[in-house]
Every structure is written in C-alpha cells, then in structure tokens.
Write a structure and sequence with these properties.
This is Homoserine dehydrogenase. Belongs to the homoserine dehydrogenase family. Catalyzes the conversion of L-aspartate-beta-semialdehyde (L-Asa) to L-homoserine (L-Hse), the third step in the biosynthesis of threonine and methionine from aspartate. It is an enzyme of class 1 (oxidoreductase). By secondary structure, this protein is α/β, with parallel strands linked by helices. The protein folds into three domains: about 5-135 and about 310-330, Rossmann fold; about 140-305, Dihydrodipicolinate Reductase, domain 2, CATH 3.30.360.10; about 350-435, Alpha-Beta Plaits. It contains 14 helices and 17 strands. The chain has helices at about 15-30, 30-35, 65-70, 85-95, 105-125, 140-145, 160-175, 180-185, 195-200, 200-215, 235-245, 310-330, 365-375, 410-425, and strands at about 10-15, 40-45, 60-65, 75-80, 100-105, 130, 155-160, 225, 245-260, 265-275, 290-295, 300-305, 350-360, 380-390, 395-405, 410, 425-435. Strands 7, 8, 9, 10, 11, 12, 13, 14, 15, 16 and 17 form an eleven-stranded mixed sheet that branches. Strands 3-2-1-4-5-6 form a six-stranded parallel sheet, sandwiched between helices. The longest helix is centred in the C-terminal third of the chain and has 21 residues, at about 310-330. The protein is elongated. Bound molecules: NADP nicotinamide-adenine-dinucleotide phosphate. NADP nicotinamide-adenine-dinucleotide phosphate binds near residues 15 and 82. NADP nicotinamide-adenine-dinucleotide phosphate (NAP) binds near residues 15, 16, 19, 136 and 313.
C-alpha cells in the first residue's frame, strides 16, 4: 500500500440523530468516499453514553471512554456529534492538542468557545470544520469562507431555526395562537419538550454569532448577539402583518455598518420581524431554513433547504469530513479562522431600523395627534397608521387599536418612543412592538 492509500482513522462521538446517519454513510459509501478522498476512511470507534449490542452497529465499535477513543494513535479525525457543550469542548480540545482534525455540528459550543478552539487548531496546524453548525444541510459556511473570500460581505440575514419557523408558519397559515402552534409543534416532534433554546432565540443567536464571525472576519460570540424570541408574537400581529402585506419571521441578521467617517462596525441580532411578502425570506415556510447573503460584488445570494434532521445534517458533516480527510492525504490544511478585521460590535440602539407598534388607545378625538407627537419629538417619521374601533363582550365600543409603522430611525429613538407611548394617559396598552426588515425605505 502506498502512502497515499494509508487509511484515515475516524472517531465519531455520538450515535444520535446525526451520528447514526454519519456512521451509516461512512459504511455504505465507503468505496465512493475512498475514491473522492484518495484513501479509505476507517471507523475506529464510536463514543456514546450507553454501550449496548442493540444500537445497530457492532458493539465492539462502541465506547463510553471518549478520552481514550480520541487519544488513539490510529485516529486522525474526530467527528463530534454529542451536543452537550462541556464534554464536547473537552473532547475537541484533546483531539486538536493531539494534532487530529475535528469536524463538529455543535453550534452552542462554536458560538461560545470559537476563539479557544480556533487557537488550539492553529497551534496544532489541524483543521476545525463546522458547516453543520449553521442551517443543517445548507452550505453556507464554506460559501462564506471560500467562494466569497475575495468579495466583501455586507449582510447575512436568514431563518436559521426550523422550530420557530414551523411555529410562526402555523400561526400565519391558521390564525393559531402562539401557545397552540407551540403545542402542535411539540406533538409533531418539531419542538423539544423544553423549547427555550429555540423559542427564546438562543439557538438562532449562536448561529448568528458563527455567521457574523465568518462573514466579517471578526470574532463574535453568542453574548455579542442582541436577542429576542417569538413568545410574545400574537395572532393579532399576524392579522396586522397580513394587512400590511407582510409575514412575521424570526430573523438572524448580521450586518456590516459603515458610519459617516467610514468607520465600520458589526451588528448581530435575532428577533421576530415583519418581512414584506415579496422578500425571499417571507415565503420560507415550515421547518425549512434560508440564508440571504449580500456581498459587494456578488450582490444577493440565497441558500435554502433543510436546516435540521439527522440525514440533512449528516450531509454537511460528511462534506467537512471528506475535506478534512483530503487535507490529511495531501498534507495541507483548509481555511482557518480569520479575525484580522477585529471590527467593534455595534449596540442595538445604534442600529437603523423600522418599527411596527400596535397599541390600544382611548377612543376619543385628538388621540392620534397625541400619539404622533411622541414619534415627532424623537425625529421618528411615521410611514403608515391604521386605526380600528374595538368592541367589548356586549358589543359596546371600548377603545381603538392603532397600528403605526415607522420609517427608518435608530433603534434607541424607536424604543424611547415606545416607552413614552406606554406612559401616555390615552394609551391603554402597547400590545406589540416588532421590527420591519427587508425594505429599502
Ligand atoms: P442526539 O440525538 O441527542 O445524540 C447525541 C449522542 O451523543 C447520543 O448518541 C449520546 O449517547 C451521545 N452523547 C451525549 N453526551 C455524551 C457524553 N457525555 N459522552 C458520550 N456520549 C454522549 O443529538 P443529535 O440530534 O444527533 O445532535 C448532535 C449534535 O449535532 C448536537 O451538537 C446538535 O446541536 C447538532 N445538530 C443537530 C441537528 C439535528 O437536526 N439533530 C442539526 C444541526 C446540528 P447515547 O446515545 O448513549 O445517549
């Protein structure tokens, strides 16, 4: 056997939704993978918690001693698909310190420890790949790090969490409340028993951190990402959105902002927003994900597909595994972390945006001008106002609902306006405040 054909030893950590698909593909596509890589992949072992002979793989491949598996001399690449951050971090650091390449799908870990892991990869001159950590099967990390490496990325905006997109799509389609759409999503297996990471936007924020880091050559962690979840979005918001020609989506937005002095900053944020129906993200429904990238020379590019699930995620993991294995065979390395730009992070108040505000007000003359004055005081110009009378259980008029859509202003001016509105005597309640994205005004 020549050196080029020396097998590449692989350890897979985790045999769950994704790990079992990766193990299946390594076995079933062995000949094709060997031809593409230039050497066969050999599965040395699979790390799990429960070692048993009913797991669909030869029991002698299973081990609960992750450290020993990672440390084996005949393991060249470690594929981490366990999930919990602590054991994953420990295993990945040990692998990199031992000079092994690492492939992981762990967005929570990558968004939290990217610097530490990148440094360990750099010190070991080993590959650290994580395509599957953002948007499952959809290739977005590699296009950003390689295909667009010569362009300047201006904005990356996407729907990167399938659970929340499923819930919001159901609310839009059926007029369901948030609670009933969440209950359906849980029954159908789209939402976990504890849905906090998804519905409060933590998962999307981790992905936004990864996307912003890569797009803007700046280290961004999940703590740098402004975050709001979808739990306060109501059926009435969807009604208003429809009347305005919009849908409501949980967006992860990463943006390069340039001020008048040509100074650049990075914004990374996650929140539910109104999106005009003609925008490509408005029609991404169900559990699907999509990411729109805007670059200076390339213009707008859209990536769309299955953002989760064992097989789709395994596709992205396998892409990384083949790349890492080819690099081993050829004796090179793939692209590494690029953080040369070191752009500062812009606080949310600095971001120019548009607001949609829905409030219940007293039904008497002059209310609209009192409300409008609060916007005017802060230089926020109003683009659209809708007012409807409200009736109580006995059919008596009991106030009015006003929906205001603003033109672009800083988030700080807009949120100050909303605080002032809530203090007005004529305003009974501020029902909802959502941002409006995807417009040019
Ligand atoms: P999963 O079904 O819960 O499987 C996790 C696997 O890891 C199990 O086999 C489990 O062992 C093993 N494991 C967990 N903790 C361990 C520990 N401390 N020591 C040893 N083994 C341990 O998870 P998954 O859905 O496949 O997800 C795996 C990773 O991919 C996560 O980081 C996730 O965020 C990421 N990801 C998943 C998807 C998706 O659609 N599922 C999409 C994108 C990214 P036992 O089987 O013995 O319990």
């Amino acid at each position: 056997m020549s050196d080029r054909e020396k097998p590449i030893g692989v350890a897979v950590l985790g045999l769950g939704n994704v790990g079992s698909e990766v193990v299946r593909i390594i076995g079933e596509s062995a000949a094709d993978l060997a031809a593409r890589i230039g050497a066969p992949l050999e599965l040395r072992g699979i790390g799990v918690r429960r070692v048993a002979d009913d797991r669909g793989v030869p029991v002698e491949l299973l081990t609960d001693d992750i450290a020993a598996l990672v440390a084996r001399d005949d393991v060249d690449i470690v594929v981490e698909l366990m999930g919990p951050v602590k054991p994953a971090r420990k295993a990945i650091l040990a692998a990199l310190e031992g000079g092994k390449s690492v492939v992981t799908a762990n967005k929570a870990l990558m968004a939290q420890s990217t610097g530490e892991l990148a440094q360990a990869a750099e010190a070991a001159r080993a590959d650290l790949y994580f395509e599957a950590a953002v948007a499952g099967a959809i290739p977005v990390i590699r296009p950003l790090t390689q295909s667009l490496a010569g362009d300047t990325v201006l904005r990356v905006a996407g729907i990167v969490n399938g659970t929340t997109n499923y819930i919001l799509s159901a609310m839009n389609d059926s007029g369901a409340s948030y609670d009933s759409a969440l209950a359906d999503a849980t029954d159908l297996g789209y939402a976990e028993a504890d849905p906090t990471a998804d519905v409060e936007g933590y998962d999307a924020a981790a992905k936004a951190a990864i996307l912003a880091s890569i797009a803007f050559h700046t280290r961004v962690t999940a703590d740098d990402v402004y975050r709001e979840g979808i739990t306060k979005v109501t059926a009435a918001d969807f009604e208003s959105a429809r009347a305005l020609g919009c849908n409501i989506k949980l967006l992860a937005i990463c943006e390069r902002l340039t001020n008048d002095e040509d100074k650049q900053r990075v914004s990374a944020r996650v929140y539910p927003a109104l999106v005009p129906n003609e925008h490509p993200l408005a029609s991404v429904n169900g559990a699907f994900n999509a990411v729109v990238v805007e670059a200076e020379a390339a213009g707008r590019l859209m990536f769309y597909g299955q953002g989760a699930g064992g097989a789709p995620t395994a596709s992205a993991v396998m892409g990384d595994l083949v790349m890492a294995a080819r690099n081993r065979v050829q004796g090179g390395r793939g692209p590494r972390e690029s953080k040369y730009a070191k752009l500062p992070i812009a606080p949310i108040g600095f971001i120019p945006t548009r607001y949609y505000v829905s409030m219940n007000v007293a039904d008497r003359p002059g209310v609209l001008s009192t409300v409008s004055a609060e916007f005017g005081k802060r230089d926020v110009s109003i683009a659209e106002v809708r007012q409807e009378g409200m009736v109580d259980g006995e059919g008596q008029r009991c106030g009015a609902r006003i929906v205001v859509v603003t033109h672009r202003a800083t988030d700080a001016a807009l949120s100050e306006t909303v605080e002032a509105l809530a203090d007005l005597d004529v305003v009974q309640t501020v029902n909802s405040v959502l941002r409006l994205e995807g417009t040019t005004e």
